[in-house]
Recover the amino acids of this structure.
C-alpha cells in the first residue's frame, strides 16, 4: 500500500500540470484572439476534454475560456476604436468577432455602451474622425 503523502503529492503535481496547461491556453487566447478559436480546439491543444478545460479554466481565472476570449477581443477593440482610424465593422473583423451583431452585443454588455457611442465619448483629440 502507498504512503498517504504520495497521493497528496501526486494530486498536487496534477494540479500544477493542469495549471501549466491552463496558462498555455490563456496565453494562446491572448496571442490568437483575432483568429477563429473554439473551446474544442483549445482543449485539444491542451490535451484536455472540453468540459474539463472549461471547469478548470473557470476555477483558475474566474470565467470560461469563451468569456475570456470575448473580453480579450473587446479590450483590444476599445484600443482600436480610440486610437485607430478603422470603422466599427473593421474593428469587429480585426479582433476576430464572428459578426457585427455579436460584436455590438458583447461590446455593449462588457463596456456598457455600443462601440460607436464609446468612440464618440472617449475619442482622443487629434486623431482622424469616423468614416
Amino acid at each position: 500500500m502507498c504512503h498517504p503523502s504520495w497521493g497528496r503529492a501526486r494530486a498536487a503535481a496534477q494540479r500544477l500540470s493542469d495549471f501549466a496547461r491552463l496558462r498555455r491556453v490563456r496565453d494562446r487566447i491572448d496571442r490568437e484572439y483575432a483568429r477563429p478559436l473554439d473551446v474544442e480546439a483549445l482543449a485539444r491543444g491542451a490535451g484536455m476534454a472540453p468540459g474539463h478545460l472549461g471547469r478548470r479554466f473557470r476555477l483558475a481565472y474566474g470565467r470560461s475560456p469563451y468569456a475570456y476570449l470575448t473580453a480579450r477581443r473587446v479590450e483590444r477593440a476599445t484600443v482600436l476604436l480610440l486610437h485607430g482610424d478603422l470603422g466599427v465593422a473593421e474593428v469587429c473583423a480585426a479582433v476576430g468577432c464572428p459578426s457585427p451583431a455579436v460584436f455590438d452585443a458583447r461590446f455593449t454588455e462588457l463596456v456598457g455602451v455600443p462601440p460607436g457611442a464609446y468612440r464618440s465619448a472617449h475619442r482622443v483629440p487629434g486623431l482622424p474622425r469616423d468614416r
About this structure: The chain has two domains: 4-63, 68-122. Residues 4-63 form one domain. The mean pLDDT is 87.
